[in-house]
Design goal:
This protein is of the alpha+beta class. The chain has a single domain, classed as Dimeric alpha+beta barrel (Alpha-Beta Plaits), CATH 3.30.70.1060. The protein has three helices and four strands, in the order E-H-E-E-H-H-E.
Length: 87
């Protein structure tokens, strides 16, 4: 079982993303090093992003402390349970 965080970006997020990216990247690097983050990235239309985590706690904790969320670049986020079939 994996857990996927989905982000919907705020309409005015564009200019803020570059400013917040170094802190956001440092956060996901720490999670990757801890082994709780398996994949992360934006959708090609830049409407949002997703990340795949090993536990619900890691997924929710990541989103709650992410500078993109804390600084209003993310309009909303959610976590869904995912049963991967093929990796």
């Amino acid at each position: 079982m994996k857990y996927v965080v989905f982000y919907e970006m705020a309409a005015e997020a564009g200019p803020r993303l570059a400013e917040l990216l170094p802190e956001h990247r440092a956060r996901w690097e720490r999670c990757r090093e801890q082994g709780t983050l398996l994949a992360i990235g934006p959708f090609s239309d830049r409407s949002g992003a997703m990340g795949v985590f090993t536990t619900r706690e890691a997924a929710e904790g990541y989103a709650r402390g992410d500078p993109f969320v804390l600084q209003g670049a993310v309009a909303s986020w959610s976590v869904r349970e995912w049963n991967e079939v093929l990796l």
